Amino acid sequence: MKAGKAILRHSLSVSLMTKLALCWVILIALFASLLLFADYQSHKSQVQRVLQDVGSRDVRTMTDHLWRVETQAFEQQIEQLIAQPEIDYIHVYDADSTQIERGVEPTQQSIQMSWPLIAKKEGNEYVLGQLDVASNYTALRAYLGESAKWAFLGWLGVSGLGVIASMWIVQRYLTAPLSALHQQVNQWDNGLPNQISVPPECRGWWGFEARYNAMVTQFRQTLSRVENEKLDAEKASHKKSEFLANMSHEIRTPMNGIIGMASLLKSTRLNDEQQEFVEMLETSSMSLLDVINDILDFSKIEAGKLELEPLELNVFELGKDLENLFTLRAKEKHLQFGCEIDPEISPLLIGDTPRLRQVMINLVGNAIKFTEQGDVAVSITKVLDEGNACVLRFQVKDTGPGVPIEAQNRIFGKFEQGDASAATAGGTGLGLAISQQIVNLMGGRITLESEVDVGSLFSFSARFECADVPLATPVEAYLFAGAPMLLVDDSRLNMRITTAQLSNLGCQVTCCMHPDDALPLIKERLDSQSPFKVVLLDKIMPKMDGFSLAEQIVTELGERSPAIIMLTAAPDVIDRPRIERSGIEGYLGRPYQFNDLKANLVRILQQRQPTLGIVRSTGKGTSLAGLHVLVVEDSKVNQRVTEAMLTQLGINVRSADNGEQALALWSSQPFDAIFMDCQMPVMDGYEAAALIRRKASRTDRIPIIALTANATAEDKEACLAAGMDDYIAKPVRQHELATMLRKHTFTTDTQLLTKE
């Protein structure tokens, strides 16, 4: 720091001195030049006067000498004239010849004057000749050279004295005070500037000192006020976050009961009117949940805490989700709805799947909400392939009323609606604002092209990394290598998704869109070298549903029948009897996880190829029946809902009202998994999970899944930090519970077989 200050002072002093020296040198040089120029003009005028004096004073005398032929006197007069330093050339001549010539011939820059030599006698004029006189400034140049030499010496002396005097003045009254002030200005206290004190000999700087110190005082006061306001804002933001978390918990807790009970009611025997009421109840509850989620997301955006989480992303699964969500809604409004996905897109990417799904659901939902006739079309295309990454373009086009130009920018604002019709359609006015923020985090921007009474096109682009396709274990690779499989599905999008997944595993896939053609294809391959090992079929298809087709295959082929897996977007608990009756060995609800499909195929192929001698499953199906699960929940309604959902899956359930009871039950009997609420009286879920982890051995680690109404990333991190294995935000669905159990527990008993 000291070296820096010395350098600064040195550079400041040198800069000022250099500038002053240059000013002195230039000014004195200009002054000297002006003096020399004035002297030059004076001597030039003198030369002209001397020449003019020749004409007025000597011409008559020279004429008399010539008239009288006084040659000696004439030449003496000429010599006297040429001896003058101002005259360099004299020439006297007549029409016949030159009479006399002295000096150096004049140059082009010389001054020349001429006079006729005329004698006047007795009233007559006799021209005797011509007199030319010239000056080449020889004397003037010699004089100026000498003057310039002394002027230069004087210039050097005066400049030197001026520079020395200026340097002393600058050093004493400018550089030294500035250096002292610079040292004081750079001395800060805890990030705040200190007041300065000007040296006594620098009285001229006292005004600066007063103004600077006043500015520092004001700055300190302002900064202190800002710090206080910042602390108040942080406290307010913290309180707001606590309020939102509490609000989320308080609302989600009863909503879990409402949505859960509605889901359970739907699976019971209801008449048509009751079924309609339950569906309306569930729909309204989900709409309320969407509003709550929008408010929470808006709060995260305001706090700058909305972040993306890199997950595995399958755009084909996303497209199928959109079809499942909006096809029925579009049919109710007599709209055409379709989703087209570029088949060249990699089946597995890295992106925030829930957030991308949220954006697309918002855009498609708005399009269907405001479109009364025509169609809504979704397209996902690849616009750039970078090898290990790609850029996708998402578009949602509708034939709705369009958005006026003056409202197109406004609709992306918070709490904004496009026009009066949009406001009457309901909603929080946060959907597009949140979607825009999510897309911005993805590195894109939502754009709108719209024309009133024609329609709208919402689009955005985003860049995604390509994910590594999950590799099978050596045993699985042996099972899947070239395994012939038949896929029966009337949906091209479903077929594209499943085909990509099976192909990544190494299977040979044959596709069939018409269920009538499935059985002939199977029979045709029965006696070949590669009969179908597995048939994957959809549940709902035209002319013949999946159950009827499965029953037909099993009935006609008997023991030669390939294994059958059903994939359906409409899973229902009442399907269980038909699954057992039709001989279906696997049942997955869409959207399913890739690992769930792989696990079903591994189980089925291992059962049908026991000679592999590695691992054989002794269980049947993907049933969770027989698991023992502990549910820790202080709300009786939510406790009852979770118990009912798990019981329908064939699971043995025990319940506890708080963490203390959960510890007692866990100590007294074994459980396969624990669903743990976080906020409970007596002992909360965080403390209970931590105690279980401390008391349990490494080999006896029981899966603990947080089941809580808190829905922020901080809550998830808190759950994981307490020792929990996973996280489900309320309200929960039955398939979420089942997915977590399949993920964290063994759903079948397995044994290791060794060859003798």
UniProtKB/TrEMBL annotation:
Q: Name one Pfam family in it.
A: Response_reg
| Annotated signal sequence range | none
Q: Which CDD domains does the entry link to?
A: HATPase_EvgS-ArcB-TorS-like, HisKA, REC_hyHK_CKI1_RcsC-like
Native source species: Salinivibrio costicola subsp. alcaliphilus
The entry's protein name is histidine kinase
Matching InterPro entries, A to Z?
CheY-like_superfamily (IPR011006), HATPase_C_sf (IPR036890), HATPase_dom (IPR003594), His_kinase_dom (IPR005467), HisK_dim/P_dom (IPR003661), HisK_dim/P_sf (IPR036097), Sensor_dom (IPR033414), Sig_transdc_His_kin-like_C (IPR004358)
> Domain named Histidine kinase: which ranges?
246-466
Xref: PROSITE patterns: HIS_KIN, RESPONSE_REGULATORY
Q: Where are the transmembrane segments?
A: 16-38, 150-170
Supply the SMART domains for this chain: HATPase_c (SM00387), HisKA (SM00388), REC (SM00448)
- The top EC class, named as a word, is transferase
* Residues of the Response regulatory domain: 484-605, 628-745
Q: Which reaction does it catalyse?
A: ATP + protein L-histidine = ADP + protein N-phospho-L-histidine
E.C. numbers: 2.7.13.3
Keyword annotations from UniProtKB, A to Z: Membrane, Phosphoprotein, Transmembrane, Transmembrane helix
Residues recorded with modification 4-aspartylphosphate = 538, 677
